[in-house]
Structures are given as structure tokens and as C-alpha cells.
Queue: 2 jobs
Job 1
Amino acid sequence: MLNLSRPDLFKQQAYINGQWVDADSGETIAVRNPATGAVLGTIPKMGATETRRAIEAAATAQKQWRRLSAKERAVILRRWFDLMMTHQDDLARIMTLEQGKPLAEAKGEIAYGASYLEWYAEEGKRAYGDVIPGPAHDRRIVVIKEPVGVCAAITPWNFPSSMITRKAGAALGAGCAIVVKPATQTPYSAFALAVLAQEAGVPEGVFSIVTGSASAIGEEMTSNDIVRKISFTGSTDIGRLLMAQAAPQIKKISLELGGNAPFIVFDDADIDAAVEGAIVSKFRNMGQTCVCANRLYVQRGVYDAFVEKFTAKVAQLKVGDGLQAQVTQGPLIDQAAVEKVKEHIEDAVAQGAHIALGGKAHELGGLFFEPTVLTHMKSSMKVAREETFGPLAPVFAFENEDEVIELANQTEYGLAAYFYSRDIGRVWRVAEALEYGMVAINSGLLSNEAAPFGGVKQSGFGREGSHYGLDDYLVIKYMLMGGI
Ligand code: ADP
């Protein structure tokens, strides 16, 4: 059924201290394919005890791992990157089966995820310190950077592979060990990564995967004093909970949480480019990314032209099982996701929105939903404030720059924002005025391993990717050299 060229990449056990293991209780959880509802397999239902074991193993392993030179660690990380790329097709297939995204997108995510291993293999070599001129002639100030220690990560289902490598690459490159809890919906991509980590020579205990009860695992990760750093990608509600749980021990923490991205098209924009960008930004992963355009704002002068071209493009999207060629829109992850899209549409329509396209569950049934475009939008509608996380594009009209900046910033989130304009003055003004961690100008895509990914406000803090991302896994030590 899986049809993999390396069937051993599909594991149904967790990976702790270099061993493939079941839950102590022997209990399992079934994992389903969102496109068909069929059970793909099971995973161990673990809790605090197994998580503690993984953390203790990480503590032992990290002592050795940090002693390796960055160059020695880089060789292993690079090998892991190479193995991901060699097995890109199998890894993508596993991802599509458990997550639903079209195979081409899944392949793209494997390459994107692998790029973080490649990047941090190199970046780990550049954990530079400083020598600071001191105030006294007989003393010197030396600053070095050291790995923070044992890390724990909790990752979401929308990017089952890259949200793990983005954290693990930086952690391992910095000299840390990491225990990862993937989302229960998408564990097999995580296990497959562990198979390849083992093959690449990542020492036992340096990279472990535990699955099971999110709350029990999360509580152990945040309360175990061996863990020095928590990295979380997921909803703002769970991020807030983990931050509170990590507070008593003052753990270092990074949070990459929800977003409510504005996508702004000004009168002077290249409209065809804006349409292309809006499609990519809105409908990638069926609208289930934290940087997906959630609110499209189009200036009055180009509103009708944009809506016409955009709707025509959206109509060309093909819904279906992600394993089928030509499909661009897979199923949503679960019924709750479908209900949220429906709720946003119903609320908007009740307040006067027009459905330009779609608007209901797809005739394929199950978790498939029609790509939807709404017009005649008002800022009182739910979709203006809440993240939809689905294939719904609401197109709002606006009059001028000041107005749209205010509308764009009217949210507690601050992850990604997009805008299209050819006017250089406006580009600077608007980019600086947007209260977001990331701003894409004349582009619908902004994620890559060389750039710092992260938010402001209630979208979280910490950065992943780029040289900034390494800092999240390092601590600074200042050494005063006296008696000179
Ligand atoms: P989403 O709504 O996108 O599923 P969540 O924040 O619920 O986002 O999930 C992101 C990750 O957080 C998943 O791995 C999930 O299992 C995990 N998670 C959910 N609840 C908790 C919790 N109480 N403690 C720790 N992790 C949790």
C-alpha cells in the first residue's frame, strides 16, 4: 500500500536513545490518511515516563556530542541532509499519506526541510564569540558561545518534516541534543527522519522522537530540569500554556505560533504577479500554514480586475487525493478544520459577503473543501480577526495606504505580511509600518533556510533559520581574564 522503495523508512515505533521502542503500556494510537480515512498504522501512546527516559538519554549523549568539533558534527549533519535528498520521493510519499498535501508540495517540503540540516551543518562552525576591550589594563573580556544543553521540541502537523529539521538542525549544529514530539496526526515523517539520522551517524540519544499524549509529554518536557530549552511550533493557545509551564524553571523558550497574514495589493502593483503570489500564499497546503494569506486587501482602483483574475486562477485548482498527478489541493487535516472554514464562510455571508467561487464542502466528500473566494468583505467578520487555516480567500477593498496599514496591524498576531507595489517610497513606508516579523514584498513566498523565520506580538518569539536561528540554541559565557 505504501509503495516505498525503502519500506524500512516507515516505522511504527518511537525512537529513544537509538532504539525503536513501544510505549511501556503497550498502548497505541491509530493514524489515518486524511484523503481516504484509511488507517495507515499505529504509533506508541507514550507519556511522562518514556519522555523522561529520552531526556535522560539526551543528557548523557549531549556531553559527548558537544565535545565534537563543529566540523565533526557538520559531517554527520551533511550526511543526514544527503540521505534526505536521496530518499526524497519516499519521504514525500509518507508525508502525503499522513498529511494530505499534494506529492509535489511534499517533495518541496523535504528539500526545504533538508536545507536546514545543510545550513546548520555549516552555521554551527560559526558560533563566534568576541573579545571586548575592557576598562582596565590588566584585564580582558572574552565572550564565548556554548550549547544551551538538552532541548525539547513540539511540532505541528502542517509541516511534518521541516518543522523538525528546522529545530533539530540548529540544535545539533550548536552542540545540543534534542527530544522531539511530533504531532499525533503526522508521526511517520518524524520516524523516517530518525531512520536517516541513525544511518547518518547521529549518535544515540542526540535525536529522539516520542509520540503519544501531548499533554503528558509536554508537561514532562517543561518540568524536567534537565531540559534547558523548549522550542514549539503550533497554536498560540498551546504556546501560552507551554510558556506558563516552562516559567517555574525559567527555561529558554522559542515559540512560533499562529498568524493572521494580510496580503495587500496596491493600485500600482503588477496585478498578474499579485494574483500569482496570492494563489501561492493562500492555497499552499490547502491554506494550512501559519504564514498563509488570511486577509486579502486590494485597493479600490484595481479591486474588480484583481478579483476577476484571481477567481479565474483559483477555479483552476484541482482538488483530490494528493497522490494523484495534477492535484493541487488535498484534504484538510480533520473535520474540525472543515468546520472552521464553514463557520468563517457562514459568518461572512450572514454579514453580506458574496461567494465569488466555492463556498462549500467538495463533492468528493470526506475532508475535501472547495477553494473559496469571498468579496464584499467587512472588518466585523470573523475571518478579519481569526486565522482560518483553510482554503478560503476573503478579498477586502481599501482606499489608501494609511487605512490599509491600520487594518493590517489590527490583530494580536504578527507573523507574516505580504504586499505588492512598484513604488519604492511606498515599499519602504509600508514595510516599516507593518508590525510583523516577516514582510514579503512582491512575493507570495518567504520561507527559506537562509532567512530568519519568526514573529512578533502573539505570534511568538525566537527565530528559525539563518545565523540568528543558531542563537536560540546557544548561551553566552563571559570570561574575565585578570592578572595580566
Ligand atoms: P493545531 O491546532 O495546529 O493542531 P496545536 O498547538 O494544538 O496546533 O498542536 C501543535 C503541537 O502541540 C502538536 O504536536 C500537538 O500534539 C501539541 N500539543 C497539543 N496540546 C498540547 C499540550 N497540552 N501540551 C503540549 N503539546 C501539546
Job 2
Amino acid sequence: MKKVLVLAEVRDGQLRNVSLEALTAAQALAEGGEIVAGVFGADAATHAVALGQHGASTVYTADHAALAQYTPDAYVQALTQLIELASPDAVVLGHTAIGRDIAPRVAARLGYGLVSDVTSVEAGPVFVRPIYAGKATQTRKFVDGTTFITIRPNNIAIGAADPSKTAVVVPVELDIKDLRTIVKDVVRKTSGKVDLSEAKVVISGGRGVKSAEGFQPLNDLAEVLGAAVGASRGACDADYCDYSMQIGQTGKVVTPDLYIACGISGAIQHLAGMSSSKVIVAINKDPEAPIFQVADYGIVGDLFEVLPLLTAEFKKVLV
Ligand code: FAD
């Protein structure tokens, strides 16, 4: 039986789904032991109910001015102190921008090993993670010492909430000092209606959209499906959209239930960011485009004709 610490993430006041997925992974790691969670920020305690119902027996909350906006300096100090306080056998974070940034820093600082970008936890425990841009999977196991993992969003199904379970809330005083960076302001580049890395449906545009305005039919379909809109690097390089939308090896990795690729050729670097999607639909006017090799459904056609038709049909059933 092990004690597992999950660092929960809050974004725009909402607990991120990946934090509940991390609690599910923690149950496999705890083997009947204790699961505790940590949350930073002014409204941290408001998330204790959800964290408790998903398995955390204790929720450590830390409110500190330096934690209001993410900085590696402050978060590394905070997580290190939380680990020293909770003394877990295993630590689980989401493989998010924050998790990817602090997990290796804290693991190195404490002398722990780290398995990052885990897509499933199997008996052992054995951790499964994609390698070579998703072309192969690797299984890894900790021989001894503290287990430290980050999990890829949208891969581990969230366990059912148990309303009878509650967590004890423990406010923690952190000693955060010697900060080298202070965030003064955050400017969002995307509308951020649906978070790309956690979206259940992603519609992406490539160079085939031909202009910034060419994203409009994708936005229209996204509105109807409640989807997030992404892009290939080709579209970003051509200045049709912001790099925050880029999916792929050097962009975001997404694993939605449905990925619709529009005017994207299917270069290996793009596939690295989306090939684990559960269902892939490709719309491309070139029947030889490599994207069709990974697609479950392919539509050979002009995206400017196909997308309005799809939007109109979905509107009939969904709106
Ligand atoms: P193209 O390859 O130009 O394809 C455009 C497609 O649109 C074509 O297949 C065409 O048939 C189709 N099309 C055109 N008009 C229409 C229409 N009206 N209707 C339907 N279809 C149409 N790329 C990424 O995406 N993500 C990454 O993270 C990434 N990282 C990289 C890292 C490195 C080190 C390198 C070298 C490259 C990386 N790339 C990445 C770039 C990648 O190799 C490709 O160049 C890029 O993905 C191509 O983008 P695209 O598919 O939009 O453009």
C-alpha cells in the first residue's frame, strides 16, 4: 500500500479534467493506500469536494501571492515543500504545460526518477508512454525510490465520483522566496473557449485553409460541436493562425474522441500530436494525401464545400 500525492491544476477557476484523471491513475498506484491532493491558489479549497469524491482523503491547499500566476520558481518551491510535508511514495501530475515544466525540475531537485507523458498505468505498476512521435510505445517501471509521473490528458478514463466521500482540507503555509521572475500580466492569444489539450472534439486546419479567414468554416463547425480549433504548423507558419493552436511534434499533443483534419497533408510531425485520437476524420482534396493512411474516415473533397454541409447536418441534430 502506497501514499500517492496528486498535484491538481485549476484553470480559469475550474479544476482541470486531467487532475481527476490523475486521481484515477493514483488509485492504481496506491494499491489500497492513501491518496492526497495539493491545490494552489486563492480558491483552492473550493475544489476539495470534487477531489474528495474522486478519491483524495486529504486536500492540501496553499494560497500565496506568488502562486496566483504560474512561474516555475514559485511552483517548484511550492511542490517541493508539499512533497516534503506529505512524504508520498508516488507523485502524479498532468502532462500539461505546467506539469511538463515543473515535474522534471522537482524530480531532479529531490533525486527522483520521472516517467513523463504516461498514457496508461498497468499492474506492476508499469507505465506506458508513446515514443518516436507516437510510432511505438514504451513500458517503464520504477525499480525503487519515489515514483514520479506525468499523465497525458484524455487517456485515462475518470473514475466515477462517490458523493459519500469527503476530503479533509489542510491549509499549508509555504515559504516562497528569492523569486527571479514575477508575472505582471497575462495576455491570452486564443479565445480559449475550449481548451485544446483537453477537448473531446478537435477540428484542425492546415495550409489548405489558404488564409486566416479560411478558418471560419472550421470555427462554425466547432461552435456546433463544442469543439476546439487547432492547426498544422503549415497553417501557423503561413500566418493563418497563432502558434498556440499548433498540434504536433513541436506543438500540442491532443487525444480527443474525434479529430477532424481539414486541408492537412499528414506529415509525420503533425501525426505525432494527434495520431492517438480515438476517431480521425480527414478532409483533403488530394486522395493520395498521407493523412488518409491514419484516418478512420476520409472525405476527398474541398473543405470549403464539405465543412458547411457537415455544419448544416450537425445543426439539424444538435442545435
Ligand atoms: P501541406 O503539407 O502544404 O498540406 C496542405 C494540404 O491541404 C494538402 O494535402 C492539400 O491537398 C490540402 N488542400 C489544399 N487545399 C484544399 C482544400 N480546399 N480542401 C481540402 N484540402 C485542401 N507540422 C505540424 O503540423 N506540427 C508540428 O508540430 C510540426 N513540427 C515540425 C518539426 C520539425 C523539426 C519539422 C522539420 C517540421 C515540423 N512540422 C510540423 C512541419 C511538417 O513537416 C509539415 O510541413 C506541416 O505539417 C505541413 O502542414 P500542412 O499539412 O498544413 O501543409
